Amino acid sequence: MSEYVPMRLPRRRSVAVQVGSVMVGGDAPVVVQSMTNTDTADADATVAQVAALARAGSELVRITVDRDESAAAVPRIRERLDRIGVNVPLIGDFHYIGHKLLADHPACAEALAKYRINPGNVGFKAKRDTQFSQIIDIAQKYDKPVRIGVNWGSLDQELLTKLMDENAASPNPIAASAVMREAIIQSGLLSAERAESLGMARNKIILSAKVSNVQDLIAVYADLAARCDYALHLGLTEAGMGTKGIVASAASMGILLQQGIGDTIRVSLTPEPGGDRSKEVQVAQELLQVMGFRAFVPVVAACPGCGRTTSTVFQELASDIQEHIRVSMPVWREQYPGVENLNVAVMGCIVNGPGESKFADIGISLPGTGESPSAPVFIDGEKVMTLRGPSIAEDFKAMVLGYIEQKYGSGKPLELPSAAQE
User: Fold this and answer.
1) What distance in Å separates the CA atoms of residue 409 and residue 404, rounded to the nearest whole number?
2) What's the rounded Cα separation, in Å, for the pair 90 and 19?
3) What gap in Å lies between CA 301 and CA 322, rounded to an integer?
4) Which residues form the IspG C-terminal domain (predicted)?
5) How many angstroms separate the CA atoms of 408 and 359, rounded?
6) What distances in angstroms separate CA 156 from CA 88, 95, 384, one per listed residue?
7) Beta bridge partners of 33
8) Does residue 108 have a known ligand-binding role?
C-alpha cells in the first residue's frame, strides 16, 4: 500500500519588511491583519475598534485616511492607543489625495507604521508619477514601508486599455479575463519598480493584487509570486457576508498558502449591521491554524451530532469552553505561554468519543441517547476518571482550567473533582 504524503509546498522566499514592531515576509510567520470601519476622524470610535481588533489577535490594523480631519486624528489615535497599552502598528489607507494629506499632516505621516497606496487612483495621466513620487518621498523621509495595493475595481484604466489593444492586435489573442489579470500584475510590478527607482529599498515594499473572484485571485497571486520576491499581502476583496465571505476567502487563500504564497492575510468580511468587526480576525486565525501554519487559540474538537446525540449537553459544553477560551486568550497569552497549542475534545457519544478524546490533551465523551449517564475523561491519552451526575459539564470545565494551570502555569498537580469518580 502506497503512503500518501500531504503536499504543502515550501514557503516562497520573500524580502522581509518591518512594519512597526511586526515583521512581514522573510522567515516571519504569516501575519493576520484587519481594517476598521469607523470614521477615522472619530478618534473615540476608532481607538475602541482598533483596540478590539488587536485584542482579537489582529497584528496589523489599517485605518482610512481620506480627508484632513482623518489625517489630523491619526496622531491622537496613536497616542491614545499607546497610553492604554495597545501597540499594534497602524497602516494608513490612502486614495486620490494621499500625497497631499501626508504632506499637510506630518504628525500623521510619522504616527503611521505603513502607507497603503492604490496605483489605480494615486493620480491620473500626468499627475500619476508626480503624486506617487511624493508619497514615496514622504515614506522615505519618515522611514516607512508602503503597500502597493492593486484592486481590480480601481485598476489603472490607461494600462488596461493599452494591454487590451495590444491583445486585440495580436495574432493569438487571449481571453479578456487573462488580460485583466496581467494588467493587475503589471500595475503592481511597475509601481514597485517606480518606487525603487526613486530610492525606496525592496525591504520597504509589500504588494497586493486583489480581485473578488476565487479562481482569478489564485491565478493572479500564483503569477505574481513567480515574477517577484516582494512580500505579498493576500486578500479576496469584497468577499461578502457571512458564510459566503468565509468560504470564498478560505478557499482562495487556503490554496495559495498551501502553495507557499502569502506573507500577511486579511479576510474582508462584510459584517452584519452592528456586527462584530473582529469576526474577520477570528476567521483569518482559524484559517492559518487549521492549515497548520500557526497556533492562536486552543482547539476544541466536537462532533457534529447525529441521532445518537439527541441531548444538547455536548454542544452547549463545547460552545461554553470555546467561548471561554476566546474571551480569556488576551490574558492567557501572557499568563500561560504555549496555551494556544492546547487541544480539547468534547464528544457526544461512545462511537468516536473515547478515541477522539484520547488524541486530545484533555477530552470528554458524554453519553449519547440511551447510553449510561456517565462521561469518561481522558488526559494526555489516558482515562483518568468518569464523571456522573448533574454537574458533569461544570466539573469538566473546571478540569480544563486546572489542566491549563498545571501544564502552562504553576505546574501544580491537577486536582480531580471529588464527586462522581470511578
Assistant:
1) 7
2) 9
3) 10
4) 300-400
5) 19
6) 32, 13, 64
7) 60
8) no
